[in-house]
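FAQ: What does the model actually see?

It sees only this:
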Amino acid sequence: MSGTGSGSWRGAGRRPRPVEAAWRLTLAACAGEAVVWVLGAFVVEPTGLDDMTAAVGAGAAARQLALSGAVSGVLLAAWITVAAYVRAGRAWARIVLTAAAAVALSARATDLGMAGTVPGGWALLAALPDLLGAAAVVPLHLPTAHAHFRHHPPAGTA
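And it is asked to produce this:
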């Protein structure tokens, strides 16, 4: 391996392995979130579409589902954008991603707590993207990743 001599770097100008691991975990979490949304809306009984159709009718349910999908898409795009800034070495983005992971994990824990004493398979599967998102944050706070954030000045100051 070339670079700084640290085993965490793959070569000169490359990102530390923990940062790349966090990037891959984030992409997996985002993909998982999209899959969970689709499964919850259309596959897992009772589906979100079935519940909404029964409550407000087919037309309103379709509009609500479209809005939900659009908002989910925007949030996933924002998540990936912040993760890209983390990958580029922006310390503020690491803070944002860490805070978002903490909030998501707290919300999911509350959700699981309401699922009874033993959450079912769906509840556990739905929690997987949040767990991956939290796991993505951990490598960003390892000592081998800290230098990546110190060597990139805030935007507009370079």
